[in-house]
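re: ur question from yesterday

yeah so i grabbed the chain u mentioned. its 403 aa long if i counted rite. heres the sequnce exactly as i have it in my notes:
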Amino acid sequence: MNTKKTKTVMVTTEHHFNRLPDNGIYTGGSFPYSFWQRHLNVFERVVVLARVKREEKYEPNMTRSDGNSVEFVGIPDYYGSWGFFINIYQIIKAVDKAINMSDVFILRVPGAIGTLAAKRISRLNKGYNLEVLGYAEAMLWAMPRLVAKICRPIFVCQLKRLCLNAKCISYVTKQALQKRYPSMAAYITHCSDVQLPNRFIKDINKIRSMDNKHWKNSHKKEYKILYVGSLAQLYKAPDDLIVAVNRCLKSGYHIALKIIGSGKYKDHLKQMAIDLGIEKNVHFLGQIQGAEMIIKEMDKADLFVLPSHQEGLPKAMIEAMARGLPCIGSSVGGIPELLPQEDMIIPGDTEALANKIIEFLIDPKRMQTTALKNIEISKAYTEDELTKRRDDFYKKCTESTQI
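ran it thru and got these structure tokens back, copy pasting raw so excuse formatting
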């Protein structure tokens, strides 16, 4: 089916963006212009509804997000539930503005913005579509423990209701999120939010030809462990990884942990490394922009670790797999769709995580075999594989406007 590109799609995201003096919208991490541009295969125009903050200074890691046929409707750059409620009038005003500019609605959930937008759209007797990226519990990490405990069943019920009432729905996992948040949508599919450029996949022959001594333990060698993830919250568990690395160091293994990512917990994690006396072994690289820089750091590493407490389908892990990195993850979300049981740990168990890291370090043959297997798995997430499935979802969304 060929759909004429005459419709404007509104897409929500919980990401934070910056508006610079040139009036352009910039990101310091995810969602550059190329991300939104892929919607233009089907739609004529994209309206992005997101939090936008005015900034006066350009930073080197910033990338332009808006562009030809992609514009933003900015919501006040709030943080947390309290910030949402004190800005509610301006948020509703921005949501309604974006709705009025659009014909089709794709809401990226979970998130307060997508949830509010669904309610406003439904009031107009219009249908909304969902891209389900993760679990509702991911929204709770910024809240005090007692508040999170109270809100958890509310958020879970809210997301379940959104999924049941969606016209079309796409999950980033093949099974995990579908089981937790079933849908009665007319069109249901799964499509990873991760889309690897074909050039990202490492030549498998380079891994095959690599001598096992590359990974073999030696007192002269310092193993490089890589973590990539936001430090705005701790649900990806960089703190657990620091504790596990400390255990490995105490066991006599030479390890350097590199952390790529930024956010408000960066200073907390730095202090944690200092308190453990391992600040020389933990390196914070900040936010790295651009595929080439990410590839460079991944190719330097020996092992990728992501011990998350909550996940959808982790982009960074798929990228690491594509570069031939052995990976360790936790048994949550979509990670079991990427890794076998023997490469996972129960989230929060730092002793098991340390033992799993050591298991890999002392077994160079396993490192090489796992690297080869990971490259093959990552090929399912290349641009060629995903574009058709995503475009089919967008085309179905164009038929879903009216309830």
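noticed a couple things. The radius of gyration is 21 Å. also The CA atoms of residues 321 and 374 lie 5 Å apart.
anyway ttyl
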